[in-house]
Design brief:
CATH architecture of the largest domain: 2-Layer Sandwich
Largest sheet: 8 strands, antiparallel
Family: Belongs to the AHA1 family.
CATH topology of the largest domain: Alpha-D-Glucose-1,6-Bisphosphate, Chain A, domain 4
InterPro entries: ASHA1/2-like_C, START-like_dom_sf
CATH class of the largest domain: Alpha Beta
Shape: elongated
Oligomer: single chain
Order of helices and strands: EEHHEEEEEEHHHEEHHEEEEEEHH
Number of strands: 16
Radius of gyration: 22 Å
Pfam families: AHSA1 (PF08327)
CATH superfamily of the largest domain: START domain
Strand content: 35-45%
Distance between the termini: 42 Å
Helix content: 10-25%
Structural class: alpha+beta
């Protein structure tokens, strides 16, 4: 077990957890930055977590839901305060109601994680600051120590897995709930470079093309809240054309961009295209050791629409575009 300390201090209203791991600090740090890895150990084995948002930057927000063996769900959130990669980060930690709102009936804590190198790998130290002795006692009574030990016991397997989350894996889809899809890909470039490649037309038209044989004659990006974008693609013999439009809902350069997306009705659209469905796309960029982790959470109107879109080969087309981004745009 990696957990080496679990200490409460009633006078300082703190709970301190220490754990040691046989991996470098950066490997352990990345496990907390990557929602795909984090959700494999954040909850105990009987209550695995699914992160629906993970903004690892000051001012960002993370949300997750832990699902129990009987199907019961328990939500939580992090409100990010500070981040000094790969040394420390802090956030406000709270609970969510069943409808996804902040639960004001349960306590919030201020948590600080620090990471330091050791002779055998790395050490993690988490200090939770409580508002009162009653809140500290309440969370300890809820089984926090047992849950922490079970959760921490899963980290070794995650950080030892160098294949599942490697950049060479390419674009990876993950179904979340009934209507969401999370697509993840490590891009070999900085967050600033990847952001520019998604919001500057002269860069986008060089890589955002999907399969060979298509061009992007219309590229009108948007990166300010309330602005609209329009993209159109056309095949080489001009027999097929399709496009998308939408509005920017959130923008936090160079880390987060949230937009709506609706397919345009254009002459010569590929067979099977559906112009009626509107999705919400949440793109998050997170610096990791091998580049930038790009995650896009797509929310569809229903499960049927998600299935139909996946059947078009969307993920394969995204991988072709991202590979072109690395080879043709990024240094």
């Amino acid at each position: 077990m990696p957990l080496t300390g679990f200490t409460t201090n009633a006078e300082e209203l703190t709970l301190t957890i220490t754990a040691e791991f046989p991996v470098p600090v950066k490997r352990l740090w990345d496990a907390y930055m990557d929602p795909r890895q984090l959700e494999k150990f954040w909850g105990p084995p009987t209550y695995p977590a699914t992160f629906t948002r993970h903004d690892a930057f000051p001012g960002g927000l993370s949300t997750y839901v832990m699902t129990g063996p009987e199907g019961d769900t328990h939500g939580g959130y992090w409100e990010w305060l500070t981040l000094d990669a790969p040394h420390s980060f802090s956030y406000l930690d709270g609970f969510l109601t069943p409808d996804g709102q902040r639960n004001t009936d349960l306590p919030t804590t201020r948590n600080t994680f620090t990471f330091e190198a050791t002779a055998s790998g790395s050490r993690l130290r988490e200090v939770s600051h409580f508002n009162s002795a009653e809140e500290l006692e309440q969370l300890v009574a809820m089984g926090m120590e047992e849950g922490t030990r079970e959760a921490m016991g899963q980290i070794d397997d995650v950080v030892a897995d160098l294949k599942s989350f490697a950049a060479e894996r390419g674009t990876q889809p993950q179904l979340i709930g009934d209507t969401q899809l999370r697509v993840s890909r490590i891009i070999r470039g900085s967050a600033e470079q990847v952001w520019r490649a998604h919001v500057e037309a002269d860069l986008m038209t060089r890589w955002m093309l999907g399969p060979d044989g298509w061009t992007m004659p219309v590229c009108e990006p948007a990166a300010e809240v309330g602005d609209t974008y329009r993209y159109e693609w056309e095949n080489d013999d001009a027999t097929q054309r399709f496009g998308f439009t939408g509005e920017v809902l959130e923008a936090e350069a160079p880390y987060r961009l949230v937009t709506t997306e609706r397919m345009l009705s254009l002459a010569g659209m590929p067979e099977g295209s559906d112009s009626s469905a509107t999705t919400q796309n949440e793109m998050t960029l997170t610096p990791v050791e091998s580049g930038t982790l790009l995650t896009t959470l797509i929310t569809y109107p229903d499960a049927k629409t998600r299935e139909e879109v996946l059947a078009t080969g969307m993920v394969d087309g995204m991988e072709l575009s991202y590979a072109r981004l690395e080879s043709a745009v990024l240094p």
